[in-house]
């Protein structure tokens, strides 16, 4: 992973580069495999709701829990692989800390799997207080505790990694505001169009995720104390706020970490640089605050919430995502327009991600309106919105990066037929999966119901067919990644 061609890039020894490449590939392969398994879990849930598969309600909720926590974990570990790969080219990052987080993550995964499949914990990845403690015999206190401990362990690993990000960014740029481009935005330094977008995005992710994970750690510790000392009763509304702040920030941050692949790879494929400028810095600065302020749109039905908080959240929800989406989407269109880009699978996936991200936020904005939320709250509209932007926005960025790393992006050959087939199976399947969820929500079908009423079953069956296409596409992507990635050299 030598980075000698651009003077502002960091030099590493060959052995450090070799080790770093193995580490990034390990993150990608582990993450993509978990995604595939979790998609199979999603397919099973859809088939069960559609009466094509018989599973008990307790197993359904265990699968729902492992699916939720599994995809969020996979999104975190894979997007961190993408982010670390590019960030280390501009600031001196430690391979040891990167590996440490990876192994801590795997330890957390083992704890979580044990809590679900041995301990039978099925209280959803959101572990909403006081549900973990009142299972009515479905799981033990110990199982709920191990689940939360697993999450806590994973959070600690990421906090250690972010300390290394912070150290390295400060060592190179002196301050987080300089790394974010604020000194240029506010005229204290001339605008440097070569200031790396990867550094701007990573600094934003570092700030928001540090806060999000710290809030998650606080709420997990409070939940753990409550499990063993029930007389300690934290305020339920405070717990819900902290959990939604944590969950919302963490999953959004995966998108902001992965978009670095768009900034770094589209210029390679088009032969045009991605120039950072004042609107770019302003957008990323705004999103630091917006991403932390939007989560209360999930709490619009919680009447004890202070009205001002909900109003602010509603306003921020309308605007959240738009600044970075606009500069990124517009930038991507401009950089590709008449560039003569070769549409490799990697390029297609990265471009698709812009559509998925942009279109996926629209149902979220609709649901953040109080009048709409009154009807759509806790319906399948909500999974519809996040499956849209995660399946068609986040995943294409991650898989597009995997294709690049597997050597596809730089080679002269055209995409193989199997790649093209995988791409369209995935695209159509993911679009249909999300649209069926949205249509179900619009028909008032509730989310998180193991058994569906007869009039809802047709939707679940259509969703099952769509999900099979997604799994097929993903299977082809994974096979390609597993065959080509391990031996691939670092793309220059
Ligand atoms: C083949 C692909 C997938 C299928 C068929 C699928 C299906 C499902 C189903 C049936 C549910 C439960 C819906 C309900 O409330 O009744 C669900 C929940 C969820 N899915 Fe997926 N999913 C897929 C992929 C993904 C991916 C790639 C992500 C994230 C990157 C994701 C994130 C989630 C989350 C966060 C939940 C919420 C779990 C909860 O309510 O606790 N899914 N999915």
Top keywords for this entry?
mainly alpha, 17 helices, 71% helix, 0% strand, disordered N terminus, binds protoporphyrin IX containing FE
Structure characterization notes:
- It contains 17 helices and no strands.
- It has a single domain (14-484), classed as Cytochrome c oxidase-like, subunit I domain (Cytochrome C Oxidase, Chain A).
- With 492 residues, it is mainly α.
- 71% of the residues lie in helices and 0% in strands.
- Helix 2 (57-87) packs antiparallel against helix 3.
- InterPro entries: Cyt_c_oxase-like_su1_dom (IPR023616), Cyt_c_oxase-like_su1_sf (IPR036927), Cyt_C_Oxase_1 (IPR000883).
- GO terms for molecular function: cytochrome-c oxidase activity; heme binding.
- This is Cytochrome c oxidase subunit 1.
- The chain crosses the membrane at residues 28-48, 60-86, 98-118, 138-163, 204-229, 241-266, 278-295, 307-337, 349-366, 386-406, 418-439, 459-483.
- It comes from Nitrosomonas eutropha.
């Amino acid at each position: 992973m030598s980075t000698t061609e651009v003077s502002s890039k960091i030099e590493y020894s060959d052995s450090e580069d070799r080790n770093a490449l193995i580490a990034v590939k390990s993150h990608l392969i582990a993450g993509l495999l978990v995604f595939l398994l979790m998609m199979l879990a999603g397919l099973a849930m859809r088939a069960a709701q559609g009466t094509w598969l018989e599973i008990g309600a307790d197993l359904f909720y265990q699968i729902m829990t492992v699916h939720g926590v599994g995809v969020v974990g996979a999104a975190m570990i894979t997007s961190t692989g993408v982010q670390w790969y590019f960030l280390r080219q501009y600031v001196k990052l430690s391979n040891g800390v990167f590996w440490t987080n990876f192994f801590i993550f795997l330890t957390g995964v083992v704890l979580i799997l044990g809590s679900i499949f041995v301990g039978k914990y099925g209280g959803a990845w959101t572990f909403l207080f006081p549900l973990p403690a009142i299972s009515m015999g479905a799981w033990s206190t110990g199982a709920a505790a191990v689940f939360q401990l697993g999450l806590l362990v994973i959070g600690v690993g990421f906090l250690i990694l972010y300390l290394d990000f912070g150290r390295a960014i400060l060592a190179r740029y002196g301050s987080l505001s300089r790394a974010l481009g604020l000194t240029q935005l506010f005229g204290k330094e001339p605008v440097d169009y070569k200031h790396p977008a990867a550094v701007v995005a990573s600094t934003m992710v570092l700030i928001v995720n540090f806060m999000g994970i710290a809030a998650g750690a606080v709420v997990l510790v409070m939940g753990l104390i409550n499990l063993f000392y029930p007389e300690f009763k934290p305020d339920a509304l405070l717990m819900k706020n902290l959990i939604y702040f944590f969950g919302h920030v963490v999953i959004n941050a995966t998108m902001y970490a992965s978009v670095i692949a768009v900034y770094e790879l589209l210029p390679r494929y088009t032969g045009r640089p991605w120039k950072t400028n004042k609107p770019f810095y302003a957008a990323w600065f705004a999103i630091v605050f917006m991403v932390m302020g939007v989560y209360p749109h999930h709490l619009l039905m919680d009447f004890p919430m202070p009205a001002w908080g909900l109003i602010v959240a509603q306003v921020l929800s309308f605007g959240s995502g738009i600044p970075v989406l606009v500069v990124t989407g517009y930038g991507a269109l401009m950089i590709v327009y008449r560039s003569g880009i070769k549409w490799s699978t990697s390029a297609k996936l990265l471009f698709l991600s812009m559509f998925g991200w942009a279109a996926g936020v629209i149902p979220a904005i609709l649901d953040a309106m109080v009048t709409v939320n009154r009807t759509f709250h806790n319906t399948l509209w909500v999974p519809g919105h996040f499956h849209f932007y995660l399946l068609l926005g986040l995943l294409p960025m991650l898989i597009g990066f995997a294709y690049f790393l597997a050597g596809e992006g730089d080679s002269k050959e055209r995409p193989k037929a199997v790649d093209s087939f995988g791409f369209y199976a995935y695209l159509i399947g993911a679009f249909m999966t999300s649209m069926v969820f949205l249509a179900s929500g619009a028909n008032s079908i509730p989310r998180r119901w193991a058994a569906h009423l007869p009039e809802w079953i047709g939707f679940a069956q259509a969703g099952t067919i769509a999900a099979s296409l997604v799994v097929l596409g993903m299977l082809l992507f994974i096979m390609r990644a597993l065959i080509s990635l391990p031996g691939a050299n670092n793309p220059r």
